């Protein structure tokens, strides 16, 4: 073999065997990333608990009374959360109001019955309903314009906006009209007394 052939063979061998990534170094990066993700998750959970502790003054949610009158409207869909009225990013997490879930809404003359499988149910008496509107977002959920039914209600000394989305979004307008009409009749009755 000539020195030129030996040199070409050596250069070819150098090009073929590149350094393989160390398994130990790769595992250290994976473990480090997993610890970092767990730490961030823990911080988010602590923030959720802290927000709930700040909202401790919110009274317990009322349950639906027995023997509700016949319903005016009913819908199935999603509950997207509750916020302080007028502040669409100030999520309320106390008493499970921050938990998204499926929902079955029923509007009766007695009020609004909110049944949430897998989460806390609650009832909003008719006298506590303040109005309804179509909106595009509530804390953590943004939809197209008018894609969200937002019901405003009083609980304790706080006004709350709760966001719902029906499985059939065309129903939202009827809900807004019914709740707002109901609110006007309650306000009118209260003024007559």
In short:
The chain has 193 residues and is α+β, with helices and mostly antiparallel strands. It contains three helices and ten strands.
Please render the helix and strand layout as text:
Blueprint: H1 3-16, H2 23-54, E1 71-84, E2 91-92, E3 101-108, E4 111-115, E5 122-125, E6 129-135, E7 137-138, E8 141-142, E9 148-155, E10 158-166, H3 172-192
Antiparallel strand pairs: 1-2, 1-3, 1-10, 3-4, 4-5, 6-9, 7-8, 9-10
Give structural notes.
Helices cover 35% and strands 32% of the residues. By secondary structure, it is of the alpha+beta class. It has 3 helices and 10 strands. The chain is elongated and about 105 Å long.
Principal-axes shape call = elongated
Please write the string of helix (H) and strand (E) elements. HHEEEEEEEEEEH
From the alpha carbons, calculate the radius of gyration and give it in angstroms.
29 Å
Which parts are unreliable, with pLDDT below 50 for 5 consecutive residues or more?
A: none
Question: How many helices in DSSP terms?
Answer: 3
**Structural class, judged by helices and strands?**
alpha+beta
Chain-averaged pLDDT: 83
- What does the largest sheet look like? 8 strands, antiparallel
What level of helicity do the residues show?
25-40%
Strand content: 25-35%
CA(first)-CA(last) distance: 115 Å
Tally of strands: 10
Task: Name the features.
two-stranded antiparallel sheet; 193 residues; 3 helices; alpha+beta; elongated; 10 strands
């Amino acid at each position: 073999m000539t020195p030129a052939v030996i040199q070409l063979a050596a250069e070819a061998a150098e090009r073929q065997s590149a350094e393989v990534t160390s398994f130990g170094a790769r595992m250290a990066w994976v473990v480090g990333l997993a610890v970092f993700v767990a730490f961030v998750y823990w911080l988010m959970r602590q923030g959720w608990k802290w927000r709930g502790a700040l909202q401790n003054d919110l009274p317990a949610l009322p349950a639906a009374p027995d023997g509700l009158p016949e319903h005016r409207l009913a819908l199935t869909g999603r509950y997207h959360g509750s916020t302080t009225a007028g502040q669409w990013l100030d999520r309320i997490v106390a008493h499970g109001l921050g938990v998204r879930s499926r929902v079955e809404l029923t509007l009766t003359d007695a009020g609004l019955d909110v049944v949430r499988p897998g989460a806390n149910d609650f009832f909003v008496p008719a006298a506590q309903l303040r109005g309804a509107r179509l909106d595009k977002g509530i804390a953590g959920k943004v939809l197209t314009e008018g894609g969200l039914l937002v019901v405003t209600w009083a609980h304790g000394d706080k006004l709350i906006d709760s966001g719902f989305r029906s499985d059939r979004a065309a129903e939202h307008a009827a809900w807004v009209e019914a709740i707002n009409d109901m609110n006007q009749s309650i306000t009118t009755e209260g003024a007559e007394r």
